[in-house]
Write a structure and sequence with these properties.
- The mean pLDDT is 96.
- This protein is an alpha+beta fold.
- It has 2 domains: 289 residues, FAD/NAD(P)-binding domain (3-Layer(bba) Sandwich); 194 residues, 2-Layer Sandwich (Cholesterol Oxidase, domain 2), CATH 3.30.410.
- The structure holds flavin-adenine dinucleotide and iron/sulfur cluster.
- The site of flavin-adenine dinucleotide has 41 residues, from helix 1, strand 9 and helix 15.
């Protein structure tokens, strides 16, 4: 095991780690050594060829199919230089004020987060797409919302030179998405921060981390590591964990920090989500154009958010329940499908948590509460209304019985379409494991708070009892953010970096 000495080591290079890396570049200018360790490889835009299954295995942990302990939910998170920002869609929303107030983290004010968020909004070129770049899948959503009485908002997105290839979640082949791999990490590196890829941290010690640097397999895409393969021990004045909700709590638990931090791994939430599809009579543009331009925010009132989306064929097939001719017919109708992603704003509960097995592998316990299921049911009913109001003939809705909702059949029912939707879409039809639910907004596990009895860190990401150890990623959220999380993670990571700069000075 080789020994390396640095001033600050950052574990992970996603939304949190990339932000910290850039914000610590002034320390390098002051003569210090800042190192980022990232277990995924560094990819070039040309590596992203859009081949669905190949890209999924290359860019996501477990190919995007990481399963919760009971096998009912898949969790999607990236592993690459840039972390999940390489595969995210780039929708960019600030934290809702009411959520930050509910978190009640001492010293963490919404005004402070908003000011930092604005900095990253500018840096990431966040803007609204012009009307001519909105595809029909999105237009139909807006039309449907208008007729069904829902207010659709346009998503600000962080693009530069988007060419509408709709491949965002498989890595942007055009370099348009402004993830940390495009903005913060290159700036950090040009400021002297070192980034080592294919470097997996396997343990945290007092002011040190142990890391294994891997070699690229023959034919594998992505650049080789900047360091020789093998084991290293990195000693540092400051250790910053930005390995994400699936990485940071697990690393701490595996390294023995759990005994003094009883809240470690707790507070896991994920905005569980599934797609609904509406079949139109004519072809629509769904797989051309930026996929996610509009949303409906009913988080405060009904606990759900609806987003436009475009799932790739394999994922769509997996998400449609059932099999045989009915399933095949829907897949054949792919060019005529309108899609809505339903997200529930789940709440932290004692049973849902991140932990590790004996080998140190992350395990997530996640059960659907009755409250979360009710939110999904309400979201499904709302989506079905929007699809029909937009002109869809049939809707495939997993929590409906039967799952296929035919407009004419529903309209002819004694109570009419709406009453029939309520009757057919019920909580009892939501059967975990039979409905394909996935989540990409992974939050919690190292939640912020007052002291070790209610949290893992304070409002500056300082791990209670260890001033040399910080957390700067989505695991800091004490509860669900109820909106797309990456900008808030960047704002929090910016705060953590500010605290480190002050302490190191
Ligand atoms: C498909 C998809 C679409 C999304 N779309 C949006 C969106 O449009 N808008 C939005 O706001 N959010 C979106 N998100 C969520 C957003 O991307 C994440 O919330 C955010 O990137 C999380 O930031 P993070 O720093 O916590 O973790 P990540 O960005 O996941 O970064 C963690 C990094 O740590 C590395 N790591 C983990 N363990 C180790 C270890 N032991 N050693 C070294 N490195 C390690 C990982 O490889 C990874 O690179 C999306 C997510 C996905 C998966
Ligand atoms: S739609 Fe735009 S941002 Fe998404 S992959 Fe295509 S070019 Fe990149």
């Amino acid at each position: 095991m080789r020994d390396v000495r640095v001033d600050v080591v950052v574990v992970g290079s996603g939304a949190g780690g990339g932000t910290v890396a850039q914000a610590l570049a002034p320390l390098v200018a002051a003569g210090m050594r800042v190192l980022v360790l990232e277990r995924g490889p560094r990819f070039a835009d040309t590596d992203f060829d859009g081949a669905e299954t190949a890209m999924a295995s290359m860019l996501y942990a477990d190919g995007g199919g990481f399963l919760t302990a009971d096998g009912t939910t898949t969790l999607a998170f990236g592993r690459a230089y840039g972390g999940s920002t390489v595969v995210y869609t780039g929708t960019s929303l600030p934290a809702p004020e009411r959520v930050i107030a509910d978190w009640a983290v001492p010293g963490l004010g919404h005004g402070d987060l908003l000011a930092r968020t604005r900095r990253y909004v500018a840096e990431n070129n966040v803007h609204l797409l012009p009307d001519e770049e909105i595809n029909e899948n999105n237009r139909l959503f807006v039309e449907g919302c208008r007729s069904a009485g829902y207010q659709a908002h346009q998503f600000p997105v962080n693009l530069r030179g988007c060419r509408g290839s709709s491949l965002c979640n498989l890595g942007c082949p055009n370099g348009a998405k402004q993830g940390t791999h495009k903005v913060q990490l290159p700036r950090a590196e040009s400021g002297g921060v070192e980034v080592v890829t294919r470097a997996e941290v396997i343990g945290i010690e007092e002011r040190a981390v142990r890391v294994m640097v891997g070699a690229a397999s023959p034919g594998e895409r992505g650049a080789p590591s900047e360091w020789e393969p093998g084991g290293y021990r990195i000693r540092a004045e400051m250790v910053v964990l930005a390995a994400g909700t699936m990485g940071s709590p697990g690393l701490l638990l595996h390294s023995g920090f759990g005994a003094a931090l009883p809240r470690l791994g707790h507070g896991f939430t994920c905005h569980p989500a599934f797609i609904l599809v509406g079949e139109h009579e004519r072809e629509i543009t769904n797989d051309v154009g930026h996929p996610k331009s509009f949303y409906v925010d009913r988080a405060e009132e009904e606990g759900f958010v609806l987003e436009t989306c475009m799932y790739f064929p394999f994922v769509t097939a997996k998400n449609l329940t059932g099999m045989g001719p009915e399933h095949a017919a829907f897949m054949e109708a792919f060019p005529r499908l309108q899609m809505i992603l339903v997200l529930a704003c789940d709440k932290a509960t004692p049973q849902n948590r991140v932990t590790v097995d004996r080998a140190g592998k992350t395990v997530v316990y996640y059960r659907y509460t009755a409250d979360t299921v009710e939110k999904m049911v309400a979201a499904t009913r709302a989506s079905a209304k929007i699809f029909f109001a937009a002109g869809a003939r049939r809707v495939h809705a997993p929590p409906a019985h039967p799952t296929l909702l035919d407009r004419d059949v529903l309209a002819a029912a004694p109570g009419g379409l709406e009453a029939e939707l309520t009757r057919r879409i019920q909580a009892r039809h939501f059967q975990p494991g039979r409905i394909s639910v996935s989540a990409a907004h992974l939050m919690g596990g190292c939640g912020m708070g007052r002291d070790a009895s209610d949290s893992v860190t304070d409002g500056w990401g300082r791990v209670h009892g260890h001033r040399w150890l910080r957390v700067a990623d989505g695991s800091l959220f004490p509860d669900s953010i109820e909106i797309n999380p990456y900008l808030t993670i960047m704002a929090l990571a910016d705060r953590v970096a500010e605290g480190i700069r002050e302490d190191m000075a």
